[in-house]
Design goal:
Keywords: Membrane, Transmembrane, Transmembrane helix. With 415 residues, the chain is an alpha+beta fold. Helices cover 54% and strands 16% of the residues.
Length: 415
Amino acid sequence: MLRPLRILFFYLAAPPCLLAILVFFAIEQEPLSKTHRKLSQSDIQRAKQIINTSSNYIQRVRTIELNEADLNIASNYLLNHLIESSTEITLQQDALHFKLSLTLPDNLFGPYLNITFNLSKMYGYPAIKALKIGRIEIADEFAGQLIESIIKHTPLKQYYILAAQHISNIQIQPDHLVITYLTTFKDAANNATLLENKSYQSLIFYQQQINQIILKHDPAWRLSLADIMQPLFLAAYQRSTTANAVTENRAVLIAISSYVNKEELSSYLPINLTMAKHYPVYLYKRIDMAKHFVASAALAATGASNLAHLLGQEKELSDAQSGSGFSFIDLAGDRAGLEFGKTATASPQSARKLQKAMHDIEDYRAFMPDVRDLPENMTHQQFQSRYGSVYSEAYQDMLKQIDERISALPIYQNQ
């Protein structure tokens, strides 16, 4: 019995011992960031102005430039509401260097938790590299996930969600940071449709067209997304000129999204659109694919292309942990919808060409490639085993394959 008991005690003692070792190497005696500046009243006002930058503007997309001082003021203001700390952010060429020192309550190990990392762009999106917690170096593949997990379990979560949902682009310059962000989907839709009476009338018109389609639909058959999109874009072609084709296409996609994603998007839509009946809409006999496609198309049409990509990816990663599993099929629906929305509103000429092309389609294969052979229903462990992270070469290769299938469709060519 001695050997089994030793094994039992080993397994009981190993986790706390391992934790103690990690804490020992993570916590230090001296702060790495020693510039603990006291914020003046003007600093506090500036921090609030940066953090609370609102969407009380007509533009759907706004840009803000922040210098190094702005970044340090805002970060110190935010973090010190959570824990006593000091932060140093340094702007470098194509990267932000973060140096944080958190003051810990009295403990046996030490008073400071020092964290350093770089924020740069990878594949067009922000990525965390060179993460170091105390004397522990974290591999780049896990750095982003670790930081996100920590943030999501602190009061900073609301700011993380705000950033993830609204920031569409980041440009890092040696002397300033340029952030392009969106107001909200609702504000964007409002600005796209309701600020002009003619646009409001267009949205109502397309809603009525959907109602007519639904009333004529035989419920014994699946309602294809093409059954809605083709007649609406034909109507848009007949109603449009080069001058208003982009606006009409945007109204079409918002109206379609209000039907296909009725439950999911009702609180984000600019007005309550009343539908006579509601049937699920399909792509390749799949409801989820149609929902992903249309939601991303509407977001892209309102200027939220990067947001559509980020939300789609975040949704699949979340599903991998607690939902139906990670699905490259759903992600392909997001990316195809994104391309459709961008094509529909890229320019007046592109908008008119798409209207005409949609009039001539035979079915949904014209705008959505068949991706049913792609991996899906992957758990978090399976995803990590096969692809590691969204920054891995294997994952990016999958996205490339998806994009190649989408771009091969004639409707997305020569626009």
